[in-house]
What does this fold into?
Amino acid sequence: MNSIKHQNIVIDIQDGIATITINRPTKLNALNKDTIKELHHAFMKGDKDKSVKVIIITGAGEKAFVAGADISEFADFSVSQGQELASQGQALLFDFVAHLSTPVIAAINGFALGGGLELAMAAHFRIASDNAKMGLPEVSLGVIPGYGGTQRLPQLIGKGRAMEMIMSASMIDAHQALEYGLVNHVTSLEELLPLAEKLAGKIKSNSSVAIAAAIEAINAGYEDGENGFEAEITAFGKCFGTADFQEGTQAFLQKRKPKFPGK
It folds into this structure.
């Protein structure tokens, strides 16, 4: 295993799967400016590394995925500084992850609150341990979610449920999150990373080029001014010009497993 430790995160790369662990357990892995920057670089490197087929994001310890943003960093901010905080954070990490061409699975181990839930929602899908608790408590601090939470939560669970969660600032448990469609699977804490790796294994056996195209087409359907169906038609057509398409179709016709070159 290739393990790289940074100040606030640890990156492990094994068998085409990069696991990024937010490593601030004494702060319940809260997101500060430095951690956001480190995560940006880790996701960017993982996306550029052709050997990395899937990225898993999780938190250190057994209590928290990410228990929110580091409030001490912005408690005295002005209006313009607040807007800049949200704008920079979204560009550097949350939108960046959502539009990454490498699939990202969030493995939620414990609390995912505020910016933590927003990071999990930016991932392409989520799984949770049965001790996980999720919420956007920002209105209890006199502010609103600023890292995409007001947009991604309604997309995932519907407007009414998102309104209730955001306005009440209350948490839901893993099983309610599963019922809402916020997470895809719930398992024990011990089985969380093995399940993430199993799902990653299913993904990485497929064409990384086609997966990147699928992510782009799916995202297009949720963006203003974009026609998701048109984006799908364009992306579908482009697949026909790839080596992966040639290999995938030939392997199917020859009744063998494909060996995708990733281009």
